[in-house]
Give the backbone structure.
Amino acid sequence: MASPRRIHAKTTRTGFAPPGHDHAHCVDDALAAAERQCAAKGAKLTEQRRRVLALIWNSHEPVGAYTLLDRLRDEGVRAQPPTVYRALDFLVENGLIHRIESLNAYVGCAAPAQRHVGQFLICTGCHSAAELDDASIGAAIAQRAKEIGFAVSRATVEIAGLCPNCRAR
Ligand SMILES: [Zn+2]
Ligand SMILES: [Zn+2]
Ligand SMILES: [Zn+2]
C-alpha cells in the first residue's frame, strides 16, 4: 500500500447522506478541506482543478471523466480530455478524490487530510457511494498481503448493495 503511516482508528464518515440534506454544505466543506490539504502539501489547486473537484462534488454519485467533460462544456469551458485527466490525476494523487474502479468513475473524499485506502459501499439503486474508511480493513489487507509476500501497489475495496435510503423505499 502506498503509505503505511495512514492507519487511523476512527471512521471519518458516517455513511450515506440522507436525501434532502444540505448538499451545499458538503461542497463547501469539501472545497475548504481541499484548499487546506493543498496548502499543507504545497500543491497548487489551480482554477481548473478546483472546477473539476467542484463538479465531482455535484453529488455523492461517482462520476466518469466524460460526464465531467460534458459538464464543463455546459458551463462554457472548452476542455480537452487530457486536461481533465490531468486534473483528475492531480486530485487522486492529493487524496481529494477516489477512483472507483468498478464504475470507472470518481468520487470526492470528505477526509483528504488522512491518507487512506478507498473502501466504498456502492448503491446499485441510486448509484451513490459512501466511504467505509475503516482502518482495521486496510490493516487486515496489508497484513495478509505481507504474509503472502505480496507487494500491494493499489488497493480499493468496493462493495455493491443497497443504501439505507433505497432500502427504505
Ligand atoms: Zn451532500
Ligand atoms: Zn477518502
Ligand atoms: Zn441508494
Summary: Residues 17, 21, 23, 26, 60 surround zinc ion (ligand 1) (CB under 6 Å). The chain is about 40% helix and 15% strand.
